[in-house]
């Protein structure tokens, strides 16, 4: 398993005005697109579809609150932690590796790369639902602007993944 | 070549197992008929049919685990699960309850029956009874036998044997353990959950990570250290000081480690074992792909008389440490 490098600490950088609103708007749009294309995610969440998940990317200045039932993601400054039912904490590379099937979620948790708190059932349901969905964020993002930007975005993502070591695409697609 | 039986908690994991080289995949329905009844896991009826079609197109068999014990008055739920697995084209069903086995043998005479590890059939007399009375074709042996005991068992039975080689390690008489029931009111035997996630809580307390089950503190580790899933049989407990000695802290039954019997595959083959089982229906498709690929290479190596690869999967194990479990009887 990859031991992820500790990046610099952008979580302490000052935020530009409206950064949280812009991030929330973009991520909500992405979430709604994924929910339309992969409805099984919500059905797998079952009774946890209404849970509020705090996503704490330790290398980000913003906290994310994901509400799958409302199909909404909002971003919040670290000083204003929103109410939530469950929290998942870790660095961006670990989240991306789990999301794209590069690393096993349990292994990331056993190794301390990811930590959870709150409603453990809801976190397990979310992890299992996302794992089954075989998401590919590069493909989801590329589909939003459509042609001719999709090809450029895929190439840019591939270049960024090689430079950064981040898992920006689904594991099976990377082979 | 020994048959590799691989876990699938989701349709994506089933496809990952098939693509990685599984000979057979086992899975279950998303309800209490299945001993891995965890949130977000398992198969609907249409998903099972699609999974079986995907596997069959690639020459891989699908086994359906219906391996909990029916509640009195609610047997119809379990009967329907057997009928639906049969109708979907499952190669076999994996059953534990005597009454359900009798029902399946009578109502579905063409359906291949495997005896689940949850039945805890650990000697030739018990296994032969299941075979003679109900036509059981394969038994999944409990994880409490040594390799020599497995060889001795195989000499006295006609049915195939399947043994666990990797993953979570149950050290109890499976199907009879009540530790989870004691702590939470829910058990793997009746509800399909050992240490149900609904009763698990992780918290950071005073620079340590704590893992609790039903309010009971099971593990406390320094921040940043691995945090095992809180199961009572692998818990870390403190015994108070006594006149004869100081207080002691340690694991009562077993350390939070996983089984890895890769090195024993040639001995298991020699002992007459037909199939090797990988635990982990609750794990991701990344885990399934990596473990299946590694074990497919291992069984091919065993078939060719080549040495076993070792240490490839340590990072995927609970506590990031592995044991050969009861097969070599080195644990306390």
- Mean pLDDT across residues of chain A: 85
Counted beta strands of chain A: 5
Assembly state of the chains shown: heterodimer
First-to-last CA distance of chain A: 17 Å
Q: What is the CATH H-level superfamily of the largest domain in chain A?
A: SCP2 sterol-binding domain
Look at the structure and name the CATH superfamily of the largest domain in chain B.
Aldolase class I
Count of strand segments of chain B: 15
Largest sheet of chain B: 8 strands, parallel, barrel
Give the CATH architecture of the largest domain in chain B.
Alpha-Beta Barrel
Given as residue ranges, the uncertain stretches of chain A (5+ residues, pLDDT < 50) are: none
- Per CATH, the architecture of the largest domain in chain A is 2-Layer Sandwich
Beta-strand fraction estimate of chain A = 15-25%
Average residue-wise pLDDT of chain B: 91
Summarize the structure.
Chain A is of the alpha+beta class and 175 residues long. Chain A has helices spanning 19-37, 40-45, 92-99, 105-110, 120-133, 137-143, 149-164, 171-174, and strands at 53-57, 62-67, 72-77, 86-90, 114-118. Chain A folds into two domains: 15-135, SCP2 sterol-binding domain (Nonspecific Lipid-transfer Protein, Chain A, 2-Layer Sandwich), CATH 3.30.1050; 136-175, no CATH class.
Layout of helices and strands:
The complex is a heterodimer of chains A (175) and B (332).
Chain A: H1 19-37, H2 40-45, E1 53-57, E2 62-67, E3 72-77, E4 86-90, H3 92-99, H4 105-110, E5 114-118, H5 120-133, H6 137-143, H7 149-164, H8 171-174
Parallel strand pairs in A: 1-4
Antiparallel strand pairs in A: 1-2, 2-3, 4-5
Helix pairs in contact in A: 6-7
Chain B: E1 3-7, H1 11-20, E2 24-27, H2 45-56, E3 61-66, H3 75-88, E4 92-95, H4 98-107, E5 112-115, H5 124-134, E6 138-140, H6 147-155, E7 160-168, H7 179-184, E8 200-205, E9 208-213, E10 216-222, E11 236-239, E12 248-251, E13 258-260, H8 265-270, E14 275-278, H9 285-304, E15 322-323
Parallel strand pairs in B: 1-2, 1-14, 2-3, 3-4, 4-5, 5-6, 6-7, 7-14, 13-15
Antiparallel strand pairs in B: 7-13, 8-9, 9-10, 11-12
């Amino acid at each position: 398993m990859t031991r992820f490098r500790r990046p610099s600490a952008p979580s302490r950088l000052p935020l530009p005005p409206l950064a949280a609103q812009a991030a929330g708007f973009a991520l909500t749009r992405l979430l709604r697109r994924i929910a339309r294309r992969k409805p099984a995610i919500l059905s797998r969440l079952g009774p946890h579809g209404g849970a509020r998940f705090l996503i704490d990317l330790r290398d980000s200045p913003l906290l994310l609150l994901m509400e799958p039932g409302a199909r909404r993601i909002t971003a919040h400054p670290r000083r204003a932690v929103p109410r939530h039912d469950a929290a998942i904490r870790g660095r961006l590379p670990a989240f991306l590796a789990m999301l794209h099937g590069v690393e096993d979620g349990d292994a990331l948790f056993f190794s301390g790369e990811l930590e959870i708190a709150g409603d453990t059932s809801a976190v397990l349901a979310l992890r299992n639902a996302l794992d089954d969905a075989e998401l590919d964020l590069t493909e989801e993002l590329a589909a939003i602007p459509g042609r001719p930007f999709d090809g450029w975005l895929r190439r840019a993502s591939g270049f960024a993944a090689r430079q950064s070591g981040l898992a920006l695409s689904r594991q099976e697609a990377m082979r | 070549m020994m048959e590799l039986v691989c876990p699938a908690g989701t349709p994506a994991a089933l496809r990952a197992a098939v693509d990685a080289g599984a000979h057979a995949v086992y899975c279950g329905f998303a309800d209490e008929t299945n001993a891995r009844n965890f949130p977000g896991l398992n198969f609907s009826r249409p998903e099972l049919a699609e999974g079986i079609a995907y596997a069959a197109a690639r020459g891989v068999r699908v086994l359906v685990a219906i391996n909990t014990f029916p509640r009195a008055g609610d047997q119809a739920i379990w009967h329907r699960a057997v009928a639906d697995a049969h109708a979907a084209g499952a190669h076999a069903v994996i059953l534990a309850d005597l009454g359900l086995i009798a029902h399946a043998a009578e109502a579905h005479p063409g359906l291949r029956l495997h005896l689940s590890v949850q039945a805890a059939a650990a000697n030739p007399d018990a296994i032969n009874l299941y075979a003679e009375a109900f036509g059981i074709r394969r038994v999944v042996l409990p994880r409490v036998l040594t390799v020599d005991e497995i060889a001795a068992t195989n000499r006295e039975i006609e049915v195939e044997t399947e043994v666990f080689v990797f993953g979570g390690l149950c050290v109890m008489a499976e199907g009879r353990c009540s530790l989870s029931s004691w702590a939470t009111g829910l058990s793997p035997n009746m509800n399909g959950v050992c240490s149900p996630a609904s009763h698990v809580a992780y918290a950071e307390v005073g620079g340590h990570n704590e893992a609790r089950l039903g309010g009971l503190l099971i593990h406390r580790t320094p921040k940043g250290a691995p945090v095992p899933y809180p199961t009572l049989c692998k818990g870390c407990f403190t015994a108070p000081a006594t006149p004869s000695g100081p207080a002691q802290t340690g694991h009562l039954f077993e350390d939070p480690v996983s089984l890895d019997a890769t090195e024993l595959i040639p001995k298991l083959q020699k002992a007459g074992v037909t199939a090797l089982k990988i635990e982990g229906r609750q794990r991701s498709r990344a885990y399934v792909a990596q473990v299946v690929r590694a074990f497919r290479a291992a069984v091919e190596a065993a078939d060719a008389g080549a040495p076993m690869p070792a240490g490839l999967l340590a990072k995927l194990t609970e506590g990031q440490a592995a044991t050969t479990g009861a097969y070599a009887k080195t644990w306390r």
